[in-house]
Specification:
Blueprint (H helix, E strand, L loop, with lengths): L10 E2 L14 E5 H4 E4 L11 E4 L3 E4 L11 H4 L3 E3 L4 E3 L3 H4 L2 E2 L4 E3 L4 E5 L5 H7 L3 H10 L11 H6 L1 E4 L2 H39 L22 E4 H4 E5 L17 E5 L2 E6 L4 E9 L8 E10 L3 E6 L5 H10 L16 H4 L3 E4 L3 H39 L6
Parallel strand pairs: 14-17
Antiparallel strand pairs: 1-2, 2-11, 3-10, 4-5, 6-9, 7-8, 7-10, 12-19, 13-18, 14-15, 16-17, 16-18
């Protein structure tokens, strides 16, 4: 059988190249079917794990993630075998690239299984198939694709794919994989901080049926029970002012102010309604009940409630109290959920009689929020760094 010809004899080099490859040959551009074949192997006894094909985890056994879709034993008979090192074209590859499998399992026959037919370093292509430029190429090559349709093997084969020497493939892949490990570690740190905050919130405020919190700072152990009050006594809640959608800009420029609506920040406007520090509660929309602590000059629309603390109430403590209450549970209406101020002000809450205890709780939680924000920014910085590397380590194909 005649060997498949390469699609192009063009050669390129990336913008970023490791020193040991500065004088190496340029990269070749080849067609997808020069490196991969479409595999349809249904020879299995149905005892292999069923794989979910996801953009976040790649191909992964369904039982390892929250993936609840039932299938019949009869339908499983038609499932395809996926081997470690295989790539999968999914229904959403035009959106998130081509997925990779570390597992032996089976997947729906709707997917296209790609298996290498030339010596190559799997993880080089695992990263390349997720680059924005390659995904753009998928979209360009498949104009008009919509949900329910899939990239065909023919369409995959028509795209140009880089084919550098094996040692350079490995060097690039190892660099990006190491960065992925760092990102994963920092992501776990962020989730741990967020989980810790969630638990701390529950313990620093009284549980249902209790009048004191489970955790209390030593200097307030003998301060007595918290006072039961209506939310309307703890703060005054008032809706903001209407602003036309045409006056709200998507991006910040000098002279504009943040604009908050029912689902949080909406954009930026030329006007502001408040200047200071306030808790804002979204009162209209799918995310009604969300709480933001806003400082400085901002515009609150009629779909946001501005909360002014009552006498003897610490402003920042009020924010955490509102945040903990999960106000969305009080929303009414189906098509357009909303919160009624008349209902909210009647909700019972407990507050420390000593404003210094409120301050202590607020300081503790705000310090934790600062750590979470710092960790979040660190994680975003690493992700941005990876995107820059992806752009620099792979030349643009097909041009």
């Amino acid at each position: 059988m005649k060997q498949k010809e390469k699609i192009s004899q063009k050669q390129k080099v990336p913008d970023l190249r490791f020193p040991e490859f500065k004088d190496a040959r340029e990269w070749e551009e080849v067609s997808g079917d020069f490196l991969f074949a479409s595999i349809t192997n249904k020879n299995h006894d149905s005892n292999l794990p069923i794989l979910a094909i996801t953009q976040e985890y790649g191909a992964i056994p369904r039982h390892l993630i929250d993936y609840q879709i039932s299938v019949t034993e009869k339908s499983i008979e038609s499932y395809k075998v996926v081997e470690p090192g295989d790539f999968i074209i999914s229904l959403r590859s035009f959106q998130g690239g081509i997925e990779y499998s570390n597992y032996l399992g089976i997947c729906s026959p709707a997917y296209i299984i790609l298996r290498k037919i030339k010596p190559l370093y799997d993880h080089f292509y695992r990263h390349f198939f997720k680059t924005p430029k390659y995904i753009q190429g998928l979209n360009k090559n498949i104009e008009g694709i919509r949900d329910g349709k899939m990239v065909s093997f023919k369409q995959f084969s028509e795209l140009h794919i880089p084919f550098p020497a094996f040692p350079e493939q490995q060097k690039i892949a190892d660099c990006l994989s190491l960065l992925d490990e760092v990102i994963s570690l920092e992501s776990r740190k962020l989730k741990s901080l967020q989980s810790y905050k969630k638990g701390l919130l529950q313990k620093l405020f009284p549980a249902e049926g209790e009048t004191v919190p489970e955790l209390r700072f030593p200097e307030f152990q003998d301060a007595g029970e918290w006072e039961k009050r209506k939310l309307g006594e703890v703060c005054v809640m008032k809706a903001g002012q209407f602003v036309s959608a045409t006056e709200i800009k998507e991006f910040f420029i000098e002279g504009l102010f943040p604009c908050y609506g029912g689902n949080g920040i909406r954009g930026f406007t030329k006007t502001y309604t408040h200047d200071g520090s306030y808790s804002l509660v979204g009162r209209q929309g799918a995310l009604c009940g969300n709480v933001n602590y806003v400082k400085g000059k901002f515009h609150a629309t009629e779909h946001a409630l501005v909360c002014v603390p009552g006498l003897g109430i610490n402003n920042l403590w009020l924010y955490y109290q509102l945040f903990k209450m999960n106000l969305n549970q009080y929303a009414t209406g189906q098509a357009q959920p909303g919160l009624s101020v008349d209902n909210l002000v009647k909700i019972s809450v407990f507050s420390p009689t000593n404003i210094l205890e409120q301050q202590k709780i607020a300081d503790c939680l705000s310090s934790l929020d600062a750590l979470i924000q710092e960790q979040s920014q660190k994680l975003e910085g690493l992700k941005s760094h990876k995107q820059g590397l992806l752009q620099g380590l792979f030349p643009v194909m097909g041009e």
